[in-house]
Amino acid sequence: MSDILLKVDDLVRHFDxxxxxxxxxxxxxxxxxxxxxxxxxxxxxxxxxxxxVGESGCGKSTVxxxxxxxxxxxxxxIEFDGMDVSGEKARRRNASxxxxxxxxxxxxxxSLNPRWRVADIVAEPIRHLKLASDKDEIMRRVGEHLTxxxxxxxxxxxxxxxxxxxxxxRISIARALAGEPEFLxxxxxxxxxDVSVQAQILNLMKELQEELGLTYLFxxxxxxxxxxxxxxxxxxxxxxxxxxxxxxTLFREPRHPYTRMLLDAIPDLEMSGRARTPVAGxxxxxxxxxxxxxxxxxxxxxxxxxKTEVPRAISVGPxxxxxxxxxxxxxxxx
Length: 334
Hints:
Mean pLDDT: 91
Strand order of the largest sheet: 6-7-8-3-9-10-12-11
Largest sheet: 8 strands, mixed
Radius of gyration: 22 Å
CATH superfamily: P-loop containing nucleotide triphosphate hydrolases
Low-confidence stretches: none
CATH topology: Rossmann fold
Number of strands: 12
Number of helices: 13
Structural class: alpha/beta
């Protein structure tokens, strides 16, 4: 059995946002594509939490939806436990792999059916995956999963609107666990919650990971949350991975200028006095990304090579970095 549970290789997803055909003909407009994910590769080992971070619009949530099969990739491969799950045909061919994945969505208010009782919401994966057929057995399992996430089996009789945001996210987690997954894709599961409730949900997820041996792909823009939950971290910018490493390494020795800018945005509570570079400028449009390195319009270290040549990922100590300045040794001390 391989230690690698999920492997993503050169994954691409472009969305066609062209005007209607008649408009393009009469106005002589070309087709337009949003390059949401533009060739990323990473691996997640069993029992790990791999987090993707970056500014809004960098493609994190698109990666999450590609992995669980809500989107089909434009190009590239996704392997789960050695099985190809890259497209619709591959997922049907390897249906057993698809059943071992579940997803926790960002908005606990929108991801639960308001017309269903909680018991029916949590029971749906059990019925769909045929994990149990007897009604009493299904209700017993529902009660176990609600208890597992800190709720009561009696809460199954209520509707989602009767719960707070944090409790709704617990219901979402219970629904995901009902499918008996090995791998959970968590798309910013705490971003819609108060800070105190965020901590409770994150602690619950860590406890469940240790108890059940789960593997997580965790999507977030909150670096404090990522530091708390992650084994490894990948930093995304405009559809590409610019740096990835183990959590302690990335936070202690960031290599890519963009990673450093993100970390410089965190308040310096220790008052170290280190010079800080704020994140400047706007993320370019993914419809018309800049040539060369996508970060070069905002990078203080950019040169002519950065403006024309896409950097390839290289190993720098324990980190993987895609940056010409790092490759050429032009990166200042952190």
